[in-house]
């Protein structure tokens, strides 16, 4: 297979990375994709750096067996804690979701006051703050872990009174600061976009790292001469570590292109 025709590997701790897949399909419609969701070991958001690095290494080894030409770490938590190590292990281009989201937020803010919401591990890592301050040391960052958002999304409660209530509790303290941009620093949060936007009010722009990552991926592939310029239909292959039926049902709610199957693999053996 010509290298430009090879698929892109995308991985996440579970289903959330499908929000990144959705953007990649929109912005790079000719690219074939191999997705892995670590549905047996999710959530990553409450786990330690060493565990997340071990899981991520196994997934990258699996994706390399599929001859991927590049890898997207669609999970914010894995991007925050494992991306640097992964970069040193492989010689194909790899990109995470944190840096593109941070760049976009820095370009969006006028008040130089930015909010970040994510999993406990992502927020504790301080990675978004680090990138933002590197871009502009005058930026002030306010962050908040929102651990209940992921299960709410996975239960399908995207628009629900319970979700409104939890969002109100999590987000009210962010409103005490003059933030004008809020980074949705977790794969699941774009699904709660409407609820979060209502809660934060009109003056706050929501930054979706999934959208920015797809843009950055396109630029990365172009700079390595890896963009697929062939007309042929792309292929989409899905792999999970458990619960294929639940995965397929969620995937069909998120993606416009029907997902008919997902193969279960033993990720521990990689
Ligand atoms: N995919 C994770 C992230 O973006 C959220 C779910 C989890 O905690 O594993 O951080």
- Give me the strand/helix succession: EHEHEHEHEHHEHHEHEHEHE
Gross geometry: globular
Broad CATH class of the largest domain: Alpha Beta
What fraction of the residues are assigned to beta strands by DSSP? Answer: 15-25%
Distance between the termini: 24 Å
Instruction: Profile the largest sheet.
Output: 6 strands, parallel
Briefly note the CATH topology name of the largest domain.
Rossmann fold
Helix content: 40-55%
| Tally of separate helices | 11
Rg estimate, integer Å: 18 Å
Structural class: alpha/beta
Task: List bound small molecules.
Answer: D-glutamic acid
Note poorly predicted spans.
none
CATH architecture of the largest domain: 3-Layer(aba) Sandwich
Query: How would you state the average pLDDT, rounded?
Result: 96
Question: How would you characterize the overall build of this protein?
Answer:
- There is one protein chain.
- Helices cover 44% and strands 16% of the residues.
- It is α/β, with parallel strands linked by helices and 270 residues long.
- It has 2 domains: 8-96 and 211-269, Rossmann fold; 99-209, Rossmann fold (3-Layer(aba) Sandwich).
- The strands form 2 sheets. A 6-stranded parallel β-sheet has the order 4-3-1-2-9-10, with helices on both faces. It has a 4-stranded parallel β-sheet with strand order 6-5-7-8, sandwiched between helices.
- The radius of gyration is 18 Å and the shape is globular.
- The structure holds D-glutamic acid (DGL).
- The site of D-glutamic acid has 17 residues, from helix 3.
- D-glutamic acid binds at residues 12-14, 16, 42-45, 75-77, 119, 122, 150, 186-188.
